[in-house]
Structure formats: C-alpha cells, structure tokens
Amino acid sequence: MEYKQDAGELKRLARGHWAEIMEAVGGMEPRYLDGKNGPCPRCGGRDRWRVFDDFNETGGAICNQCGKGKNGGGMADGFSVLEWFHGWSFPETLRKVAAYLHVDSDRKPHKRPQDVLKEKSKKNTSSVFSKASEAVKRQEDKLGPCSTCWTYRNASGEPVGLVVRWDTAEGKTVRPVSRRSDGWHVGAMPEQRPLYRLPEILETDGPVYVCEGEKATDAAVSIGLSATTSSGGSGAPRKTDWSPLAGREVVVLPDNDEAGRKYAEAVAGILTALEPSATVKVVELPGLPSKGDIADWLEERDAVDPDELRGQVEEMADAAEQWEPLEMAKETGPAFEPFPVSILPSPIEKYVREASKAIGCNPSFVATPLLSILAACVGNSRQIELKQSWKEPCVFWAAIVGNASTLKSPAIDAAASELRKIETERLREHQESMEEYKRDLAIYKADLANWQRVGRNEGEPPPEEPREPAARRVIVSDATVEALCPLLEENPRGLLLLLDELAAWISGFDAYRASKGKDVPQWLSMHRAGQIIVDRKTGKRLTCIPRGAVSVTGGIQPKTLQRIMGPEFFENGFMSRLLFAMPLQPVRRWTDDDINPETGTQLRAIMERLLDLMEIDPETGEMITKDLPLSPEAKAVWVEFYNQHAQEQSRLEDDDLSSLWGKLEGYAARFALLDHVIRSAIEGDFSGFNHDKIGPESLRVGIELSRWYGREVERVFAIFGKATSPEEQETRELVRIVQKKGGRITTRELMRSCRKYRSASQAAETALKRLVKQGLGRFENEETGGRPKAVFILTGSGDGDRTPLNPGKTDLPLPLPPETKKETATELSEGAVETMPPSTEEWGIV
User: Fold this and answer.
1) 3-class DSSP state for residue 409?
2) CB 596 within 8 A of CB 352
3) 470 DSSP 8-state letter
4) What is the model's pLDDT at position 54?
5) Segment holding 11, helix H or strand E
6) Could you tell me which of 814, 408, 762, 772 has the C-alpha nearest to residue 581?
7) pTM above 0.70?
8) Over the stretch 83-109, which tens digit does the pLDDT of each residue have?
9) Of all residues in the chain, what percent are helix, strand and coil, respectively (each to 5)?
C-alpha cells in the first residue's frame, strides 16, 4: 500500500536518524555524509556535493550539478535525496524508510516506533571502547564482516590505530579506529600520526619505499621492500609525523592518477624539509593501469619471482634522479611547501591553477593576491563572530615576495583582471551618471534663479539640489590616509589597495606629516575595520569613518622586506599583520597555456555577487555589517584549534615571531569567513540557516590556510632574520651571496656576484674578512695546480663544522627561528601509553 498520507509521521520518526538511514537504506558511504564539499555520489562531479548542517535532522543535501531541488536550493529532506539518488518513486521511498524504522505496511508498528529508535540510539551512544575489536565489531554490526584491517603502531610497537576496510558490490568503505587517553574511538588518529609499519622501518637502515595506502604498502613488503605510508588517504600526508625518515634514503611510488602524483609531490616536499633532509626519489612504475598502484603492477607479474621483481624496482630507484621541485631554481633556506590550492572553492582553485600555469609562476603568486581581492569584494558586508566580544572582519594584507623579473606583476594582474573589468564597467556607468547629474544641475540652477526672482516672494519652496553621484569603487592606488578617507566615506563596504610594489605604501607612511608616527595607527585600525578620524587644516576639517576596512595586496622586493623587519615595524605591530608568499623562483619557459575565458567569467560572477552584498538599516539608510557566528560543530573545531595554536605560541622564544604567530589565529577566522561567503556566492544563496552560520568545513579551510601562511612566515624569518641595523643587513646579504655559491667563494667571485664590489677588490676582501671576525667563516688556501688561491668557506657549509651561523644576537639567514617542539612518534606513544592497558590481549587487536 502507499504511505503518502503518513509521510509527515514518518518524517517525524526519522528526525535525528538520517545519517544511519542514508547508510542502511540508501547505501551511501559515510564520506558522503560528513558535511564536507566533495564528489557527488551520483554524477561524480568533484567538490559539488555536500549535506546541510542540519542533515541528521532533515536529511537535506545538494549537488550543484545534478541535485539542486525545485528552486535550486538543494533537496530539502532525506526522502527527496533518496528519490534522486536511486530513482525511486515517492511511495517506494516511504516504504523502504518505513521498513527500516520497523513500521508494518498496515501502519501498525512491531513496537512503538519511539521505542525502536530509542533502542537504536542507545546502541550507538557509546563511542568509547575498551578494546579495538569492540569498536570494529560495532561497525561490523552495520556493514558486515570487514575485508581487511591494518594496524598502526607507535615506535615502541604498541597499537595506536586501525584502518578497517569493507569491500562490497557498491564499492569500498574505510573506517579508522584510534586509541585515545580514555580508550578506543571510531575516528582518525590524532595528529601527528605514526607511519604505517613504523617499528619495522626503524629497524632497517636501507631505502624506505613510500606508497599511497596500506594495501599498496603490503604489496611492496611482499617482495622484500621496506615500505610505509600515511593514514588518511592522499589528501592528508601532513597529518603524519614523517620525522623517523629524516636523513634516510626514500623512494616514493605514486599511484597512476592525479591524486597519486599530488600525494607524491607533497610527501617529497615534506621529506626534503626535514632536518636532516631525506634523500628523495620519485619512481613511476611503468605500465600501471589508470589509478593503479604497485599492487596492480605486481598482480600483472604474478608469475615472476618476488626477488626478481624487487630487483627491478631497486634498479629503477637507483637510476632515478634525486627529487627537486619541478621547474624551480635552487634557493637556500628552509624548503618552500606547496600552496594548498585544492582546498580553495572549486572555481577559485581552477582559476589559480590555470593562471599560474599560463604565467609560469608558482600558484601561491596568484592565490595570495586573489584572496585579498576576494576579501575586499566582501568588505564590510560580513564579519565572523567567534563570540560576542570577538569579531573578525574580512580584511587581508598579503604580499608576494620576489626580486624584479620574478613574475610578480603578471601574477597580480591575473589575480585582479576580473575585478578590473568590473571596475571599468562601474566607472563607465558613473560617467553616464555624471553627465545626467550635470544636466540636472543646470536645470536646478535655472530653477533656483527663477525661484529667487519670483517664487521666494510668493512663498514657494526652493528647488531641491541634485546630489552628485558617488563612484562605486573597490580598487585604489593612492596609499595616503588623506586620499582614502573621502573614498571610504563614499564606499562604506571598504576598499582594496592594489599596488605592483608595496614599497610605495610603506615608504609613504607619514610622508606629508611634520610629526611622525600617525599614519601607522590609522592603517592598523583599517586592518581591523575600525574607526578612522582625520583632522585637516583645509576643506572639510574633520572626517570620521565608522568602519574603515581596507585590504592590501601587491609585490614586495626582498630588500624592502628586510627593511620592514626592523624593530620599528615590529614594535608598532605592522609586521605581524602581513601575510607572505615567497616561493622558489621559477625557471622561465615559454608555454601556450592560457586562462579559459569561461573560468574568468565564473570568477567574475562570484566577485559581482560578493560586491552586491549589502544590508541596509531601514531607519537610517546606512549599511549594516552582518555577523556570521560559528555553528556548534564549527565552534568545537575552533576551540581545539585555538588551544593548540596558543600552546604553539607559548613555546616560541622569539617575541616578535610570537606576536606575529598570535595574529594568525585571527587570520584563520578571516579565511573561514571568506571561504563560507564565497561558497554561498557559488550556490547563489546568502539567506537561510545554512548560510547564516559558518560550518566546520569552512573553518577547517581557514585553519589550513592560516597554518600554511604561518609556515611561510617562519620561512621568511629563517631566510631574512630581523634587521636591526644597516651593518647587519649588509652582513646578511653577504652571507646569502656565499650561500648561493655553495658556501664557498673567492674575492674575485664576490666581485662578479655583487655590483657594489664589482670594481673594488679591496672592499670585497675586507667584507669577507669581517665575516671571519664575526665567526661566520674562515679562509683556506686551495691548490689549483698553480698559485694557491684564498677561498672563503662559510661556517656550517657541509665541511663538518656545525657552528651556528647566528652567534650571540646576530639573526642571520640559515638557521631556523625558535620553533614549536615537534613531537616524534616515540614521544607521542610514550604520552599515550601511560593510561592504556599494558598487554596486547587487553587491546583486543583484530
């Protein structure tokens, strides 16, 4: 029989249980139900699908491509989702859900439905287990017997996590199980996670092979290779502690797909950044099928002796070249980590990839200014509310760092091109409005003259003077506070200061003031969208801007960056508000790649939607900034991040780095706000519950971006240090020149390498001797077959002398700044073992 007339009652009974209904009735994997943007379970479209924040209550979801619902806002409830996903009729969907809820076809329940669901809830309330096998059994009650179970152990050999896999006709399902201080949980291991087969890796001295996934790792081990992997899939290598591989020889065997190659690149970048650096090679196995791995490669060679197969892989590893970032010139200092482009909203990610490929620059050179530009499009329309007394605006100050001819300007132009088109159209409309205003003004003046002659005497009201239209602006290039104030009055949403070179902005502070020090506080206020008050001697004497939001982006040269790393800019707080991207300089090569016009059109549509955001007070007619609080799930993520970030900050010994680190937590919230509003713009909906609260997905994006820029800040510190005097700047630059020569240089080579010494051999020699006096190097005579020549050797340049390069208070480029203590796998395990049972029997490993 049909259940249409009972749909309301069934919907009430299903409330709060849609996650389990979707798994049991709909056959959906848990990865589709976690609330994150991801591939659609039906059309497969990447980053199109997500369930709503209140999913477990309503069952609602959306696919931006194939499941938008009647009005484009998604499928409002679980019945609609099941109909769409399976192609069922509405009565058929109701029957299946009713059967799961134990409601008979005659509408009489076996038991009271409330009691049945209460029993189901009671079964699933316990989330902590004394044994790992109990946690796995709970999942097997839902999914059936598991196919495989992999155990992760710490350095002491004690189990700390499981990865359990089910293989069914519908595909594979993977569930992690992890050990915490209170017992075993269904969920991923805490970061930093141990490597798979860690105890075995620590017992070997030879090369270690890194595969993607436990199945591929076991396949490599089956032919005698020492192999490992990280848990969490191809997108989570940074959540693992790779320090046990420091100084080791490592061979990465990527899967034959885009995700596999990205994983290999990410792992190689992490390993080469270790101290000491691992020697990394990336070997792509020949003949792999699409999405295949070493397990598939071995399966096709099942008849070949395992020793022979191991020999073939080892020969390929021996012949492979040592891994280096693709198309990048070598540069000294800590390794640059790839920008996490994949976490950006899909249209933004696509634009960044296409633009950077067309220019031939690192993606961070496009992404960094683009994020500031998008933030300026949001401006004062929205702010994130962490609590009532802590709100963060959508204001970013970001700079890309590089010398001349390092593609800074083309990258900034690419990031700003679509906004410039919008600005051009707006200025054209403003010109038309001005022409109309001039005509209205002429009429007004004639009417006013007539009123003064006749109408005033007859008691008529004076004509109304037309109001001069204000230009709708976003982009400005005049960095003076005096020039910005009238523009901010006309554009309360905020502005974007866009400059090719930010040196003009920085050097312009207080340029027109007899008394110094007044511009920087005004700019710091603009960074937090605060009040700005400007007194003038002429014209309008007093200007007050209630919320002066100005985002800033542009390029900056290393020498300018060194200058603003002096004490003055740290003490006034200016330095701690800047985000930097300083990738390795690319080797320029011609490419026919270009930005797809459709990709640019999509970006422009997003910008236009952001620029149209406006909340107006009906009483005053003034703009209102709308506060977006965190959802309860996002609040839990924020609290965990905040506490962890505060601990990291407390361990920093450098006060200036600690101050800068403190601002990154605010940037995490700002990035989350930007991600949330952009995704709302993509969906074309800024109203309703799902868009008025910032969810955990956007917050996780914000945290990851904040952490990337935090690592980049540490890298900038390590390379440049903090400038305290011109002499120290000169010393640092000299050390950097020697670094680029491999740590060894002659006086003649220094003259050829630096313009200031080009025609002054005595000055070059004196400069190198000064480094010797500072304990930064020594001279040695080198035999060349003729007359010995004096060679300056930088301390710590691979000659066995590891004396620090920054004795005393001299912060020089090479050494890393004081950083957070990175716990090794052994230390993590020791902390966890104290509260856990001592025997493997009690752990209950399956």
Assistant:
1) helix
2) no
3) P
4) 77
5) helix 7-14
6) 408
7) no
8) 888 878 888 888 888 877 765 444 444
9) 45, 15, 40
